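Hi R.,

Here's the chain you asked about this morning:
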Amino acid sequence: MKITSLKINSEIEYSGLKFIIHALNPPNITIFQKDGKTDPIIINYYDLITNDSFIPSNHILNTIEKDNESYYSILDTLNENKREKVSKRFLIIRPLLVFEKLKSGDFTAYVEFIKNYKHLLDENDNVERLNQEQLLTKLEYHFEISKRTIQRYLSNYKKMDEIKPNKGEEGLIPKGGEGYKYRTDNKVIQLCHPNKPDFIIHTLHTRLDEKYVSIIKSVIEKEYLNTHKISKRKIYDLIAIQCLKMKLKIPKEITIYKLLDRIPSKIVERMRYGTKAGQKYEDVIRGYANEEALFPLHVVEIDHTQLDIDVLDEKGNVTGRPWITLGIDLYTRMVWCLHISFEPPSANKVRKAIQQGVLFKGTKEKYNTLKEWDLFGIPQSIVFDNGTEFNNAEVKRIVDEVLKSNIRFRPIATPRYGGTIERFFRTINMKLIHQLKGTRKSNVQDLGEYDAESNALLTLEDITEILTRYITDVYHFEEHRGLPLESNTPIVRYYEGLQLSGYPEFVPEDETEVFKIELLPTVLKPYTRDGVRLDNRLYRKSDLSLLINKREIKYKVKYDIDDISYIYIQLPESSEYVKVFCYSPSADVLKGINQYTYKLLLNSLAEEGRIKRNKIVSEEDLLYAKAALQEVINKKYKRNRGVRQQAKRMNLDIDVKIPTTINISTKEEASIDLLLEEAMKAYEDQLMNE
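And the predicted structure, written out as tokens:
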């Protein structure tokens, strides 16, 4: 996937001709033909970059097939240990990448360097006089790694970035340490979280016989990866005991020790020392202190809230209050991103909001708005609340490595730092939501005798359209008290700010699908004869039958919470993801349906089934029947327990199995049956007397 931006003097292609960018005069852009045969052309920026004939200077062939059924990700083939190393290497060279843009005169890069890498400089250092060699020396000291190694990382990153734009991290993948992965006698030990058997936390490779795999896996998961902190020697002893029980030759002690050493320390310490140990692996990125935004998309703040309104499903049933995830650009006060669903705050909602913020909104085409939602592209910094959905490793990776942005968190217990977005939430509730049918107002006193549920008349899609229209055509053009008087509307502030910083980086339309897939969440699932089961849905593709295996063998699966009609499954030992459609229920039925909405629909159907049943038998009658059944079972337990005790008193063992070699006559069988019957009757009489 490539990310691009338009700067003065950069070259583009439009309508089959090559042009040079002459001037940026938001909302327009001035271009002239490269051969100088025509006068300069003034064209709307959004219309230009969304035109089918537009090609930026760094255009390359898409890495995704035209049918969008395959997607390639080298980084997803890495184990967590290697993936972590790639992230660390990118962290080391990132100041150099920003510094290069700074030296080329990029104002936004200058701001980013001063904000994020000032700690690398001495008090007397001047950024403008700093050179790369001096910066390398500072990085060498800061990260305790040689300049030569840092230069090698930078070179490998750039080489890969030239071949695959925005994929430079693939050049940072460690080449060594593959173990026995590519040997024919390689065995895989998939270590799972002790409390989550379906969650693979690391994969080990060994040449030991297959018989040892289950033993080693079980002992490591149950005994090593927990807070008991058992020593490696004790783990070896436990493995040895299990081998003796199974009459297997005990492996060498050094072999087991090496396997344990190949488990990343990050995983071991988190499992063995709990949350305290985990804190040392969390990024120290709480430096946000209501910093001043200096240009459009310098700082974007994201948060969630539940709207004060009841909405309907497509059948007209009230389904409750939806959640909105929203991002505000602190410089312009324009809305950058918006996602609405019934799903409570989650990492998935954050992904979808980021996706909506980065990509072209297309509101004129989708909702017939009067204006276009102009704010899109990649922000320099994203500020989050301290909710668990934001403290998500994959969300951090998206911001750091896909967007190449910086992630920030509000200081804990300081709600004043979220004032801008909190005020906007109040604005949309008071100016819009509280005026709609089905509103719950902001409190019970304001609601009074108004029945929100019975007055609800809008669906989730209706609310999404209404909010989009309000943001695009109204809010962005209204005066805002938080802005300077000379540019006190968000849209004016945005256009004036662009003259300072230029248009932000963006994802071209032909890269949209690739970007969407990169943001998708990933889970591990087995591929059985039924295919892949995700919740209660089944996904299968006829030419993937080769993936059918034991349930213990799992594959990486990507899925879209806003369209559950398909998934992407990664082929084994490959960077390729293949698109697989749902067959139960049909993909045609599920197309465009949100995951959380689908669950609500299933609950609604289940409730409908209960209502139909209650017409035949009431809920009270059913509970009475269950209670009566349990009473019968308990009586049978009591009676038969007494029979066994009585039989023992009479020296009769009713569990004795008579050898099949002894022939018992019908008469003898009858005698035994009669004896047991008399014993049971005698015991029952005794109970009655008692």
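DSSP finds 22 helices and 21 strands in the chain.

Let me know if you need anything else.
M.
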